[in-house]
Amino acid sequence: MEMFILTKWWMVRAGDNNELIPVWLRQKIVSIGWPDLENPKLFTTKEQLLSKADLVYSEEKPQTRNSWVSQVWRFSREIEIGDRIISYSKEKREYIIGSVTEAHYYDYANENPYPNTLKVKWEANTVARDQLSQSAKNSLGSVLTVFRVDQWGSEIEGLLANP
Length: 163
Fold this sequence. Notes:
Layout: E1 9-12, H1 21-27, E2 29-32, H2 46-56, H3 62-78, E3 84-89, E4 94-106, E5 116-122, E6 127-128, H4 134-140, E7 146-148, H5 153-161
Helix pairs in contact: 2-3
């Protein structure tokens, strides 16, 4: 019996003002923030990480803190080598796509505002936003920083293969 392994696809937003894409491409990484939570790998449960968030982000609503912790947890624990990453470049109105080559690490370098990091091999080709189906555009438009987009993987791969 043949095993079918589904590739996981993750949308990762490129900073508050979309400023991270040039850095990501140059450094062959993808990264997210929330440095006040410190290294999420130091917490053995999501509840412990949430307790940290309750302390450092006490001025935020509980629902907001929970959403942030869930995204950091997913990024640091669920994204695996071989998973696909997609991010949107507002300036160019296109999506960059890559594959994770190295698992999560926490970059402690000089007050890094986006310390949660994965190594990524970025594709040379991009996908123009206008090439995507309307439902893919709608789904990829979520305001979350990190979320799964597996249902659009084959559409995106098809567009990458036939630029």
